[in-house]
């Protein structure tokens, strides 16, 4: 068997190559453990000056966590498997954020869900023009997790400060960001054109991340114009609230143009009503003063554990990843029938 995460040291770099191609590098528990073991080994190794995470897949950096495995185990009566996977994955997310050396993720392709958890908490988030990212958990009856519901509300956007309303728009709608959007939102820190990537990585190994970026990082404007930036005024008005009911009222209240409302409604069409209500509670909790990343991860785990035991999770994963009919039967079918109380209490 080939390792699902290839670990090697090249020059000054500890290199992690995500290598589960048939699953688009979706993270399973062995992959999470490989990453954690490597970080523990390299943390105090003076020969390793930085960690670089890459994928050799032609289209994907990492398509997320392997929630299909979690669903299969749960359907077989084993809920502990899912609890163990998410617990260790979230610990990995925190360890990446706390890693004392440069941690460089190179996103050249699709990064979703857990793929953002293994990349965005690092010190350097390098994207190429082929980068594409989303938190699509609403469509599987879950919530944005792996620390992104916290990170996205605390990172500075191009406006020079964090924008929780933009973060909530991205997480609750599952909007797909391109390279320009990733740079504008602060999710990415640097842009390196794909045709320079091989030389960039060699320079990282030989000269270190700062020198390599000085030589190969391009002006973010070369990534193109951010569509998210033009959508931001609408998103700020609609998604700057702490309950789903308030967000719905703002959307219906004419805060955006008819075309912008159409785009939002199209994005929300696949979302689980339960996920929309519980996800908004999660974002509100993780924006609160004094909540750090580890507390944010605990909040994600608490709400996520409730949702994993809700039939909507199994139904959502079925519709998106098993039968792929994209026709989930949500219960309740309307957000107005979802009680927010258990989710609110879970993060208090």
From TrEMBL:
Chain ranges of the Enoyl-CoA hydratase/isomerase domain: 14-341
Positions of region (Disordered): 328-348
Hydrolase keyword on record: yes
Gene3D superfamilies membership: 2-enoyl-CoA Hydratase, Chain A, domain 1 (3.90.226.10)
Cell cycle is among the record's keywords: no
Enzyme Commission number(s): 3.1.2.4
Catalytic activity: 3-hydroxy-2-methylpropanoyl-CoA + H2O = 3-hydroxy-2-methylpropanoate + CoA + H(+)
Keywords for the protein's UniProt record, in alphabetical order: Hydrolase
Protein name: 3-hydroxyisobutyryl-CoA hydrolase
Organism, scientific name: Corynebacterium xerosis
């Amino acid at each position: 068997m080939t390792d699902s995460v290839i670990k090697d040291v090249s020059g000054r770099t500890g290199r992690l190559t995500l290598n589960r191609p048939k699953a688009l590098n979706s993270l399973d528990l062995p992959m999470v453990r490989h990453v954690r073991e490597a970080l523990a080994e390299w943390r105090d190794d003076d020969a390793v000056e930085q960690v670089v995470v890459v994928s050799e897949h032609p289209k994907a950096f990492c398509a997320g966590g392997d929630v299909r495995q979690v669903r299969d185990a749960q359907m077989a009566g084993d809920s502990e498997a899912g609890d163990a996977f998410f617990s260790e994955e979230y610990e990995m997310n925190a360890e990446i954020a706390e890693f004392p050396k440069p941690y460089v993720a190179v996103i050249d392709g699709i990064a979703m869900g857990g793929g953002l958890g293994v990349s965005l908490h690092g010190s350097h988030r390098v994207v190429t023009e082929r980068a594409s990212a989303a938190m699509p958990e609403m469509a599987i009856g879950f919530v944005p997790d792996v620390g992104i519901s916290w990170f996205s509300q605390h990172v500075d956007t191009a406006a020079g400060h964090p924008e929780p309303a933009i973060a909530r728009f991205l997480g609750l709608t599952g909007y797909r960001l391109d390279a320009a959007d990733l740079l504008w939102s602060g999710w990415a820190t640097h842009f390196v054109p794909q045709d320079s990537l091989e030389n960039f990585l060699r320079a990282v190994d030989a000269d270190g991340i700062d020198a390599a970026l000085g030589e190969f990082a391009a002006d973010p404007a070369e990534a193109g114009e951010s569509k998210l930036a033009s959508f931001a005024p609408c998103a700020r008005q609609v998604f700057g609230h702490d309950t789903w009911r308030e967000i719905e009222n703002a959307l219906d209240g004419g805060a955006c143009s008819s075309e912008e409302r159409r785009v939002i409604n199209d994005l929300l069409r696949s979302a689980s009503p339960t996920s929309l209500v519980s996800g908004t509670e999660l974002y509100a909790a993780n924006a609160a003063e004094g909540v750090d990343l580890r507390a944010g991860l605990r909040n994600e785990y608490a709400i996520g554990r409730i949702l994993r035991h809700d039939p909507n999770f199994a139904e959502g994963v079925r519709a998106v990843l098993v039968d792929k009919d994209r026709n989930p039967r949500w219960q309740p079918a309307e957000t107005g029938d979802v009680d927010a109380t258990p989710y609110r209490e879970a993060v208090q």
